[in-house]
Write a sequence for this structure.
């Protein structure tokens, strides 16, 4: 229903605009249509995403970029509730499991240098995997959560490669492999990757220095408690930097998406491997989806690569639509854990539904050109 209304509105909008085209001076009709579509997107996103902020009293930042063009951006609330410091464009958030795609890319960069292959067994690089239980787990299986590993030292959930089970310890293992073959710390490796992507305000919890970090809170803006030892705790055993310990900003994640999917980080064949669906999962919040290397994929339309993140008090979502080169970014620093993740992620779910519908509508419209 929403999609049909959007399509009808856009067609009407296009018709009203193109009817005013000068008759004498030659014009670029495609440029007019493109600019009209962009104007429509901005208007629609402003109306619908502003309503998300209002409906959920959302404390955080939401932005939509089409390639380098900002279509929508809004910040609301506080990065520090005690000092009443407002969130702004410089605010740095913990991004949780959105970190996993950086770890996956680091593995693939080592592969491009000939230092490993994704078909290699982890036991080739790490002594703790040289056991009967773990000896056949491959790097590929760690990348797409099909290893059967849950917690290091525990029994496998299933025979490696036969099913899906989301494992933070699996990605922390990948971080150790990166360190082993590169002979540099994970922090050093990922800092080099940030530099390559032009991300000047990203870091890890281990090495973060500076201002503008959004403290994490549980509860509500009226009744909250601060998550202690942030962001240093992200590098501890409970979470682990390769699985969920990266800090970033809206602008840096936008730069990351453009650099990664624009082919500036990985070679074309490696990027294709990174994006290829190699398993499926049923996400408790977002439902059934495909899984590649540290990223999730829509099953059905629109085409998108995305990943949610959650570490205590910090829900996040990063979406990239390849057909229109559009990034959708949602970062926050407070969560009412008593109500559960289904409630915590309601704004994120609603934003994704809005942008999915819009993406499908634009694809439909362009197919009629």
């Amino acid at each position: 229903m929403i999609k049909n209304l959007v399509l009808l509105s856009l067609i009407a909008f296009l018709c009203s605009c193109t009817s005013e085209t000068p008759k004498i001076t030659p014009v670029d009709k495609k440029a007019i249509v493109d600019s009209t579509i962009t104007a429509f997107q901005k208007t629609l996103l402003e109306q619908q995403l502003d309503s998300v902020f209002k409906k959920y009293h959302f404390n955080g930042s939401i932005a939509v970029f089409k390639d380098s063009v900002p279509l929508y951006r809004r910040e609301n609330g506080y990065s520090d509730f005690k000092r009443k410091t407002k969130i702004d464009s410089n605010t740095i958030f913990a991004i949780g499991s959105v970190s996993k795609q950086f770890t996956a890319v680091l593995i693939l960069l080592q592969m491009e240098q000939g230092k490993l292959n994704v078909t290699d067994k982890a036991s080739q690089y790490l002594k703790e995997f040289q056991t009967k239980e773990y000896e056949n787990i491959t790097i590929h299986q760690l990348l797409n959560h099909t290893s059967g590993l849950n917690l290091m030292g525990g029994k496998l959930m299933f025979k490696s490669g036969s099913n899906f089970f989301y494992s933070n310890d699996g990605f922390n293992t990948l971080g150790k492999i990166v360190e082993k073959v590169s002979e540099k710390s994970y922090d050093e490796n990922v800092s080099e990757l940030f530099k390559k992507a032009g991300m000047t305000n990203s870091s890890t919890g281990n090495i973060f220095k500076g201002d503008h970090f959004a403290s994490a809170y549980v509860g509500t803006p009226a009744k909250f408690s601060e998550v202690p030892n942030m962001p240093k705790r992200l590098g501890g055993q409970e979470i682990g930097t390769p699985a969920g310990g990266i800090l970033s900003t809206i602008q840096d994640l936008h730069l990351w998406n453009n650099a990664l999917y624009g082919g500036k980080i990985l070679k074309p064949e490696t990027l294709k491997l990174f994006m290829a669906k190699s398993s499926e999962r049923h996400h408790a919040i977002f439902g059934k989806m495909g899984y590649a290397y540290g990223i999730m994929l829509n099953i059905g339309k629109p085409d998108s690569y995305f990943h949610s993140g959650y570490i205590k008090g910090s829900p996040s979502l990063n979406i990239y639509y390849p057909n229109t080169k559009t990034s959708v970014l949602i970062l926050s620093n407070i969560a009412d854990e008593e109500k559960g993740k289904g409630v915590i992620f309601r704004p994120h779910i609603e934003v994704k539904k809005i942008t999915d519908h819009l993406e499908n509508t634009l694809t439909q419209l362009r197919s009629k050109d």
About this structure: The radius of gyration is 22 Å. The mean pLDDT is 92. The chain is about 40% helix and 20% strand.
